[in-house]
Design goal:
Elements (H helix, E strand, L loop, with lengths): L1 H16 L2 E4 L6 E2 L5 E5 L6 H5 L4 E2 L6 E3 L4 E10 L5 E6 L6 E7 L5 E6 L15 E6 L5 E9 L4 E2 L2 E4 L1 H36 L2 H20 L2 H6 L4 H27 L1 H4 L1 H16 L1 H5 L3 H28 L4 H23 L7 H71 L4 H64 L7 H15 L1 H32 L8 E3 L1 H12 L7 E6 L6 E3 L1 H20 L7 E10 L4 E8 L6 H6 L17 H11 L3 E6 L5 E8 L6 H11 L1
Parallel strand pairs: 1-6, 15-17
Antiparallel strand pairs: 2-13, 3-4, 3-6, 5-12, 6-11, 7-10, 7-13, 8-9, 8-11, 14-16, 17-18, 18-20, 19-20
């Protein structure tokens, strides 16, 4: 009996010496960090019985900081329940801990053990939450001793709360609600920028969407939501996502900064620095996949710190060079870095662990992605300004080209008259006159090219302007429709309890009638289809221009003639009258060896003449332009036929159409060199061209080209030099 009394006294003395958590208000949560005693097991091998014999030190702070350590950390504490609750909840609000085990010392000896952590499947948790929650069964007035074993491969803290289930749920519901708002902002920004990318096909928006998604996933992994909702049964991902996702976040951030700041053109050194950051982040994958958590976390944190400062440096350098978007970037990135500093200072216990420091990183990243989205949206205005400037430039070039052609025609007439008089006066000057005539011809060939270029640029500007205007006019009503849908969703989100649910649903139905939800759905589909049509039309024009732009290529290449014909028709679409039907009778053609740009010039001149012949008909009806192709296998030739229903021509005119300076147009409207150039180009390809025409019955130009151009190297070099 005496021995039993002595044992009880010793046990009571032990409890008196240990820090005791006395929970006496069931309506509140109690933060118990300062009541903990800590011990670090540098061997990672001590058992609970061995740990109980070790010397613990008082934590002395509300949120003990375990730092980044590969060792096991132990916390000891005693809880006394002075409330009427028989079950208390112990929560560790740090969901990225790899291993966390609670040992409850039973009154009769032995231990009740609960093992949690990211090495355990989520379904093993006694409480459905991303934080580690341990139910404790303690009667009123009962005390119990506990030991908590913690091991983490990254920065770890012990924000621990004790309280009833209702008080704990109230706190966690608030946390979930605010994080839901944050994820909503991330998703809206991602979808918004994805929509803009699909509209204007600017790579900056696609890279930014990837960055936004990585930012959201980074916050979700740090808060434990990815393990809870995305991969609850995948232990490997649960233990690696807090490294893999931030690495991807860093890589996409560097790629976005390069794209957004145009560092390749604006600041080459900064571009190379950011490429080095991408390489450095990629190297962190090596220790990550080798399960060297401590090394990987140290590398990731050091690279993140250096990369953040380098990003500010590069942004400052680009901003100094007058690039206005860099200023947006500096403001957004500074806000984000401020939130990161608050988060880091909280992790090192320099700032207290409270709601402000808890939500700082979410608020900072949400503000960053929002500001950068606005900055990217501003690029649309820049594109619009550039388009207007290009249209004005195209008009100016067209006017200058027309003036140049008129001036060249006047000069030509004067030179021809001068040479004729000189020829009549003296045959001695014949050679000199011929030389001057060749020089004038060369100038007119160049003038003809410039006239064609002016005509093309005006047509292209008009063609691109229509679909772009259609796209931009659809954006504003689409935004208004999205605002209506967002307001409708907010009304649904406001339903948080079954109270008055019928009244709230009726209010929502009234709002749906107010905004005419069926019309909104229909209008969104119509607007998106319109934007898609405009984008497809613009892409078609650009593709045609890219194909036709081989005009200056001087090398022989194997090309598809149908591509050249199609690109030419795309560029001439603005010149085709509404009453003209274009008919394509394409056969199967092999690719032929040719100067692709020169053949495009042939197609342009002949088709343009055909359209002019149709426009000159005094009586307009349903007219046609027919383009036919076929392969003459026996002769190894391809033929291209361009037939119009224009005014046609007499035999006398037909005999002279390929002569230089011959034209049926009025003075100042043509040089008479278009078909002469066509004939010269076809001759260089060792082909031939035939013309069939009768007055009033249109004309047909038939071109025959060989599959290969039999040009010896010396002749080929000479031809290329002439074309250049």
């Amino acid at each position: 009996m005496v021995l039993l009394i002595l044992c009880l006294q010793v046990q009571l003395a032990t409890f008196a010496e240990e820090p005791r958590v006395v929970y006496n208000d069931s309506s509140k949560l109690m933060q118990i960090g300062r009541y903990l005693e800590l011990f670090r097991d540098s061997t990672n091998q001590l058992t609970i019985d061995q740990v109980r014999k070790q010397a613990f030190t008082a934590a002395g702070t509300d949120v003990p900081n375990l730092q980044i350590s590969p060792f096991s950390n132990w916390a000891r504490f005693v809880i006394t329940n002075e409330t009427g609750l028989n079950r208390l909840m112990l929560e560790v609000e740090y969901p990225t801990i790899d291993e966390i085990t609670l040992y409850e010392v039973s009154p009769g000896g032995g231990y009740k053990i609960v093992e949690l952590g990211q090495f355990q499947p989520y379904k093993n948790r006694p409480y459905d939450h991303q934080n580690y929650i341990f139910p404790l069964d303690l009667a009123r007035g009962e005390s119990r001793e506990f030991y908590l074993k913690v091991k983490a491969g990254e920065q770890a803290q012990l924000p621990m709360y004790l309280g009833g289930e209702s008080a704990l749920n109230a706190k966690n519901n608030e946390r979930n609600f605010i994080f839901g708002l944050y994820i909503g902002i991330i998703l809206v920004m991602a979808l918004y920028n994805l929509f803009i990318y699909l509209t204007i096909r600017d790579r900056s928006y696609l890279v930014y969407v990837s960055y936004i998604v990585c930012v959201g996933l980074t916050q979700a992994s740090q808060q434990g939501y990815t393990f809870r909702f995305l991969w609850p049964n995948n232990i490997w991902l649960a233990t690696h996502d807090t490294l893999i996702i931030p690495i991807l976040n860093g890589i996409t951030a560097a790629l976005f900064i390069q794209s957004f700041l145009h560092t390749r053109e604006k600041y080459k050194l900064g571009h190379n620095i950011l490429t080095g950051v991408i390489v450095a982040y990629s190297l962190v994958f090596i220790p990550t996949f080798l399960d060297k958590y401590f090394i990987a976390n140290m590398m990731a944190q050091m690279i993140a710190m250096a990369a953040s400062l380098l990003a500010i440096f590069v942004g400052y350098k680009v901003a100094r060079r007058g690039f206005i978007p860099a200023r947006y970037f500096l403001v957004a990135w500074s806000i984000f870095l401020t939130s990161v500093c608050i988060f880091v200072l909280r992790n090192f216990n320099i700032l207290p662990y409270n709601d402000f420091t808890y939500y700082a990183l979410q608020v900072g990243s949400a503000a960053e992605v929002t500001l950068l989205s606005f900055a990217l949206a501003n690029k649309i205005n820049i594109y619009r300004k550039e388009k207007e400037e290009s249209q004005a430039m195209a008009l100016r070039i067209s006017q200058e080209n027309e003036q140049l052609v008129r001036e060249q025609n006047v000069i030509l007439e004067a030179k021809v008259l001068e040479r004729t008089e000189a020829l009549q006066n003296s045959n001695v000057e014949l050679n000199k006159a011929l030389s001057n005539l060749k020089e004038a011809q060369t100038q007119l060939v160049e003038a003809e090219k410039m006239a064609s270029l002016g005509q093309l640029t005006a047509g292209i500007a008009h063609e691109i302007n229509n679909p772009i205007n259609f796209v931009t006019s659809n954006i504003k009503p689409l935004k208004l429709d999205f605002e209506d849908l967002k307001n409708l969703l907010k009304r649904y989100e406001a339903i948080k309890s079954p109270d008055n649910i019928e009244e709230k649903l009726a209010d929502i139905e009234q709002f749906k009638q107010q905004i005419d939800i069926d019309y909104v759905h229909s209008e969104i589909d119509t607007l998106i289809r319109g934007i898609e049509d405009g984008a497809n039309r613009t892409a078609e024009i650009v593709k045609g221009l890219r194909t036709f732009s081989r005009l200056d290529e001087s090398d022989l290449k194997f090309v598809d003639l149908h591509e050249g014909l199609n690109s030419t028709m795309v560029l001439l679409r603005n010149n085709i009258p509404k009453n003209v039907e274009v008919i394509y009778n394409y056969g199967e053609l092999p690719k032929i060896e040719c100067f692709a740009g020169k053949l495009n010039q042939v197609f342009l001149n002949i088709i343009n003449n055909a359209l002019n012949a149709i426009k000159m008909k005094p009586e307009q009806g349903q007219e046609s332009l027919t383009i036919s192709t076929r392969y003459l296998e026996a002769d190894k030739l391809v033929s291209i036929s361009i037939k119009d229903s224009g005014i046609g021509m007499t035999d006398k005119v037909k005999e002279k159409i390929f002569e230089p300076f011959f034209t049926t147009k009025d003075v100042g409207e043509g040089t008479g060199l278009g078909l002469s150039i066509v004939f010269s180009i076809i001759e260089k390809h060792h082909g031939r061209i035939l013309v069939e025409s009768e007055p009033g019955k249109g004309a047909e130009f038939i071109i025959y080209l060989p599959l290969h151009v039999p040009i010896v190297p010396s002749v080929q070099s000479q031809s290329q030099s002439q074309m250049s």
